[in-house]
């Protein structure tokens, strides 16, 4: 139709992997970095650790994205994840202040801080996964059990280091300050291959519908009749004028290493200007 076109890229001699999924192609909001403007934001793609032999996005697709220049790609380290997509640890939400957005990062450190707070308040026996025991874990899981699990703690220290490495890259390449970043509590565990999967539904993998956020329901410890993870996320995001809606996705997506965003799409309103006229 008029003003519509598409490009089909298919590698002939390379195998494709989960890093070629569209969850591994994100874009930042418009940013200004060291005096250079990116009015259409920057493409974010996940890759292996530099100089390692891990999984990478197919070269054909990477070359195509780099050729777009106006949204100069930023490569992040995502091969530490089982699926390996950048949307598993980073997303962006709109705000009405001068910055216009905040970057959200998955944070095991934030989760451990929250659980220790609740333990000190005498809520260590608060139970996770209520009503979802068989789908998420076969045993009764409490804050005390999570905090006493040394192997889980070590695994999440490793995950936090991976995320912190990406945090530094994102701050540099998107011109961000610490105040532009919000850490959402998250926990991971490592599979038999040493790759990370979410311990509970990963709230960073949310749908952003303007001010409404469709967030995977984490089924965290229930203290005082409310999930403490949901309460903390509301406290972080609602002051920005955002509306948090927690959606159950355990059977539909989480059990297959995905979340709400992996099986849904959002139709965006096109720009009013001719974006294809922008020069890098």
Automatic annotation (TrEMBL):
InterPro entries: PAD, PAD_C. It holds the Pfam family PAD. One of its GO terms (molecular function) is calcium ion binding. Signal peptide: none annotated. One of its GO terms (cellular component) is cytoplasm. Residues 1-277 form the Protein-arginine deiminase C-terminal domain. This is PADI2 deiminase. It comes from Donacobius atricapilla. The lineage of its organism: Eukaryota, Metazoa, Chordata, Craniata, Vertebrata.
């Amino acid at each position: 139709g008029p003003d519509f076109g598409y490009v089909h890229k298919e590698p002939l001699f390379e195998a494709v992997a989960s890093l070629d999924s569209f969850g591994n192609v994100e874009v930042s909001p418009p940013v200004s970095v060291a005096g250079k403007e990116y009015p259409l934001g920057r493409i974010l793609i996940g890759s292996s650790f530099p100089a390692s032999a891990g999984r990478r996005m197919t070269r054909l697709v990477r070359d195509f994205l780099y050729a777009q220049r106006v949204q100069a790609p930023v490569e992040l380290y995502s091969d530490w994840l089982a699926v390996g997509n950048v949307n598993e640890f980073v997303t962006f939400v709109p705000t009405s202040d001068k910055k216009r957005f905040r970057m959200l990062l998955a944070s095991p450190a934030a989760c451990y801080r929250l659980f220790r707070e609740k333990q000190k308040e005498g809520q260590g026996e608060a139970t996770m996964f209520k009503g979802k025991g068989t789908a998420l874990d076969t045993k009764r899981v409490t804050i005390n059990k999570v905090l006493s699990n040394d192997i889980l703690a070590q695994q999440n220290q490793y995950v936090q280091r991976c995320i912190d490495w990406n945090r530094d890259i994102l701050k540099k390449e998107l011109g961000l300050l610490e105040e532009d970043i919000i850490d959402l509590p998250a926990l991971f565990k490592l599979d038999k291959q040493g790759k990370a999967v979410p311990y509970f539904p990963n709230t960073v993998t949310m749908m952003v519908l303007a001010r409404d956020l469709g967030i995977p329901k984490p089924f965290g410890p229930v203290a005082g009749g409310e999930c403490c993870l949901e309460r903390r996320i509301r406290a972080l995001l609602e002051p920005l004028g955002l509306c948090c809606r927690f959606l159950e996705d355990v059977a539909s997506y989480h059990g297959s290493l995905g979340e709400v965003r992996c099986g849904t799409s959002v139709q965006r309103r096109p720009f009013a200007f001719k974006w294809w006229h922008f020069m890098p």
